[in-house]
Structure prediction request, 625 residues.
Amino acid sequence: MSIDAHSETLSFQAEVKQLLDLMIHSLYSNREIFLRELVSNASDACDKLRFEGLSDDALFEADPNLAITVTADKDARTVTIRDNGIGMSRQEVIDNVGTIAKSGTKQFMSALTGDQAKDAHLIGQFGVGFYSAFIVADKVTLTTRRAGLTPEHGVRWVSAGDGQFTLETVERPQRGTEVVLHLRQGEEFDSFLEDWTIKSTIRKYSDHITFPIQMPIAHGDNAGELEKVNAASALWTQPKEGITPEEYDSFYEHVAHDFEPPLAHIHATLEGRQEYTVLLYLPKRAPFDLWDREQKHGVKLFVKRVFIMEATEELMPRYLRFVRGVIDSSDLPLNVSREILQQNPLLDAIKKGAVKKVLDLLKDLAKDKPEDFATFWKTFGVVLKEGVIEDRTNQERIAKLLRFNSTAHTEEQTVALADYVERMKEGQKAIYYITAENPAAAAKSPHLEIFRKKGIEVLLLTDRIDEWLVEHLTEFDDKPLVSVAKGNLDLGDLETEEEKEQHKQEEEQAADLTARIGEILGEKVEKVRITHRLTDSPACLVAPEGGMSGQLERIMKEMGQNIPTTAPILEINPHHPVVERLKSSEGETAADLAWLLLDQALLAEGGKLADPGAFVARLNRMLAG
Prediction:
């Protein structure tokens, strides 16, 4: 059949042009990573064919032995990476090589550190690895044919990295993809034409690729024959005793595209109703897409060593989305669609078992390596807190891992709930907490005054998610979690009978005053009452029992939520000079003092004044008077 040699010249996206410039001019000290990236792409293509071939073995075209071949030609100054994987159609070449996923480049650019070694490792994370070819090549030729298409549907893509590429339809008998790099001139590029450089680079970065990576033998009787240069074995299937820490770290770099070794890992085979192996890692640093709701990176699922999918929520809940690694099942069906797989009860059981392993790993890390756990918490603590809300089954396990600031430890989130309970004062029946925008604001809150006076520790909850966390985590170790800024404060046995009687008398004596302030402030407050919380400040705002805190209300409004404003309770300190002055004031002075009490209480908890001008006018009148 004749070939329609349809040829066209197209321009790269603007972002791709930026990326090419970066590759050429900014990553010159880590040139060897081009081979890692192109071999990784070839491995992905083989994985995809092996998976699609499960339901359509005609795609193998009588060539089921998947492999990657790397060759160098010194005379032509070319390095060629060839695979017999899934290949690409013409449109797939345009989509995958001529453009970049909308978020990839911009996020990649913003994540660059300026450290070339670190930035070189970021390439794979962001899915832009193909373009690393231009670090060493001044021209790249890609020839491909998708498995299942006839030979006349081959496609050739050529670019000099100058902002344009040409696309041409060609005859290609073999399926898969061949990438030919025409190396730049210069001694610094010559080494990539040497077999020993290519072999050592493959063994350094790609030894654990599960497909054989082949190179022709250079000398001897077998010259020209292909030999396997990587281990080509699934690390997770090997006995733990025979795997070195360096091999574990190397495999982590491969699956996570990370330049730092992991914080910890778990490698285990679980047996019972079903058998599966997990090799899971905790990173030291946050993946670039940690806060991306459409995150695609995660744990890779294999079935009998056949790659099925890179799953996120199918294998790990969202609150463990930072975990990297592989899960290999012996019992899941191979020839099944992703949609059916998502509903498979075996997969659900695997997920539950893997989650338990990760939480146990974190528990051991907190117990045996507290410094490493502190590193983990600083990076991923906020994400783990999501588990308290999302995972009722493991809520107690997760609660034991939580760390907070407290009035006893304001600098870092180091206080575990178990530590707090152990330090509770005799007679204390609740775990007290306050939510605020940051630790400094929380530590200076007037709500803490009585707790400081009595030496009662209070947790300082300053992550935004904490407002939702305390709605779901209502108790720990049979101790209720109680906000110091909500409802009536009942310190129980922490107060003496004399103190309780004094509070009662003060409330009776100030009944007229609280009623008068309530009339002045009107609907701005639910009620005015005497405080038991304050020792130094004149007033504070308290949310009604079961109501929304001021902090949560502000967060919701910042998120664009249209929520009704809840009138707070204003508590006043009858012993404060401002309140004493208000008792004996009338008219405008009394009104100004009442409004100032409300406004400063709002400011003290991080709120914003509805009418700053009126506040300033009242304050000036007080200062002048």
The longest strand covers residues 137-145. The CA atoms of residues 349 and 384 lie 21 Å apart.
